[in-house]
Design goal:
The protein is built from 18 helices and 18 strands. It is α+β, with helices and mostly antiparallel strands.
Length: about 575
């Protein structure tokens, strides 16, 4: 039964490096581990108290100290993890797999389908209940179970918590520690069948290290009539021709040593030039991260095609899309593509750039974030989202029916979709500096087809890059600081006026003066005195109202109205 045991161990909340239980767990050794953990987190984490005040963490630490000599290895490891979980950072956690692997497990597994928890693994004697919905564990709803495990698991959004629950639900130690079951007690699964029938399955915990004690375990996957080609997951990245769509599966944000990304991107370019595709699908549903820069050659290849309307690009996202893969998903949206599938476990803004260290006595490895990543500083589509799961533009969850039939629900839906997709208009959304430049260029009817990287904080595949290049070449923008443009920052009336008037100078164009006399007092009170003449000219040209607040941010609709007045004045 080694394969069955290994399968369940793989579902634990683990990192890539095994932990080692302490040889002689005295209270003094444990105290040293606890102190080392806390002090290292304070030193290396960018904002340890962002979600829990220091006094709250110290109170938890004191609680753990009070029972150092009374608990076993597994409980001590879970105590440490419960302290770390209070940080509210999905990237900061303990690798306690080595401790838990010497404990006990219940022979079952679950997965989220169609908005509910479904049994995906059971002993062969209970195989009739595979695919049934779990309503409760030991009389507690799955919502209550998730809430209890939430005090132990490192997560910063509900999707990450759900994924963590799935990965550690079989651990008897985890369920006992969180109060889902009593130590040594059986686990009662209350199930509902496809036709509403009810049943209860009772499971006993089994030693994770005793293969002989395990019964034959069957998986729901064995009932699939076929497996779709998109379920491969056997390479770092690869591509498929799906008829009208070109499919790229990107499973890890790492370079394949046998197929460098530059080489793969060249192959993709050759494929796309040989055949007209309506869509390009980039599948990130199996990708838990790495380096977000690995995908850039593909994005650079596709960005001009998206801008020209030659192809529609879709990123496929789901529960496993995390860390750098979540950043890649937002980059796809930023270049003008869309996202389909399900919400991600990776958050938009998040702690990341992970380092690691080991505790001196238990040997448990700790991974710790060293940086807070604010995507809104670089991607307009991230502005205002904060620490939240990425929601797809088109929600297409994998259904249980399709899974069993060997169909990829999201891919099938995209292949069947004939009409172009249009994202919802957001007239009241803040207007970014990058978007305003694009709107100005479009309003005056200028062409912009040059891709480049005019500023250090402008990604080379941002959809408005050619517009910024146009503005730089025309001499109407120079950035906010050396090498920086702040493309995602909300533009103000003052900045809009400066850019419009600079365009008139660069294009050697004139518009009539419609307001004369004394300019409003706010012209003399501008935060940038050098802008005063531009702003006054814009007021005289009728582009700014008398009651204007120059430093106020503009929404997209206000920006459109401003440019409409500008174009009308140009004639």
């Amino acid at each position: 039964m080694r394969r069955a045991v290994s399968l369940f161990l793989a579902l634990l909340m683990v990192l890539s490096v095994p932990a080692y239980a302490a040889g002689e767990d005295t209270a003094a050794q444990r105290r040293e581990d606890l102190d080392t953990l806390y002090e290292a987190l304070k030193e290396y984490h960018p904002n340890l108290f962002a979600n829990a005040a220091e006094e709250v963490l110290l109170a938890k630490k004191a609680e753990i100290e009070g029972r150092l000599a009374a608990v076993d290895d597994a409980t001590f490891a879970l105590d440490l993890q419960s302290l770390v979980a209070m940080i509210g950072d999905s990237h900061t956690s303990l690798n306690i797999s080595g401790v838990l692997s010497s404990g006990s497990m219940f022979p079952f597994s679950i997965r989220w389908f169609d908005g509910a928890w479904v049994v995906t693994g059971l002993p062969e004697t209970e195989a009739a209940y595979l695919g049934w919905t779990i309503e409760a564990l030991n009389g507690q709803t799955m919502g209550q179970v998730c809430d209890k495990l939430g005090g132990l698991l490192s997560s910063d959004n509900p999707i990450k918590l759900r994924r963590q629950v799935r990965q550690c639900i079989a651990s008897a130690e985890v369920l006992a520690y969180t109060g889902v079951v009593d130590a040594g007690a059986e686990l009662h699964l209350a199930l509902t069948g496809p036709d509403g029938e009810e049943a209860e399955v009772v499971l006993s915990a089994l030693s994770a290290s005793d293969d002989a004690a395990w019964p034959a375990v069957v998986q729901l996957s064995s009932r699939r009539t076929q497996v779709p080609a998109t379920a491969a997951q056997d390479r770092y990245y690869f591509s498929l021709d799906l008829g009208d769509a070109y499919y790229i599966q990107f499973n890890t944000c790492q370079e394949d040593p046998e197929l460098p990304m530059e080489t793969f991107a060249a192959q993709v370019a050759e494929d796309l030039s040989a055949k007209d595709y309506d869509k390009v699908l980039i599948d990130l549903r199996n990708n838990s991260g790495g380096s977000d820069g690995v995908l850039v050659p593909i994005l650079m290849l596709l960005a001009p095609m998206v801008r020209s309307g030659a192809v529609e690009v879709w990123g496929l996202v789901g529960e496993a899309t995390f860390s750098s893969a979540a950043i890649n998903a937002m980059e796809i949206r930023e270049m003008g593509g869309y996202l389909a599938g399900e919400a991600t476990s990776g958050s938009v803004d998040h702690f990341g750039s992970v380092g690691s260290f080991r505790l001196p006595n238990s040997g448990i490895q700790v991974q710790c974030s060293t940086k807070y990543i604010t995507l809104a500083d670089y991607l307009e589509c991230a502005v205002g989202l904060g620490v939240t799961a990425i929601q797809p533009d088109w929600e297409v969850p994998q259904t249980l029916e399709d899974y069993l039939a060997g169909r990829d629900t999201a891919v099938e839906a995209l292949l069947a979709r004939q009409e172009p997709f249009s994202a919802a208009e957001q007239p009241q959304a803040p207007l970014s500096r990058g978007r305003f430049i694009a709107m100005l260029r479009q309003a005056v009817g200028a062409q912009a087809d040059t891709w480049g990287m005019p500023f250090d904080d402008v990604f080379p595949f941002n959809w408005y890059v050619p517009d910024i290049v146009w503005a730089v070449e025309l001499g109407i923008v120079g950035g906010k600081a050396e090498g920086m443009f702040a493309p995602t920052h909300c533009i103000t009336w003052e900045e809009a006026a400066v850019l419009a008037e600079r365009y008139l100078d660069a294009a050697d164009a004139e518009i009539p003066i419609v307001q004369d006399g004394q300019a409003p007092g706010w012209v003399d009170a501008l935060s940038h005195p050098w802008a005063a003449q531009y702003v006054e000219d814009a007021w005289r040209h009728g582009l700014l109202r008398d009651d204007c607040s120059p430093q106020a941010a503009i929404c997209r609709q206000e920006g459109q109205e401003f440019l409409s007045r500008f174009v009308t004045a140009l004639g």
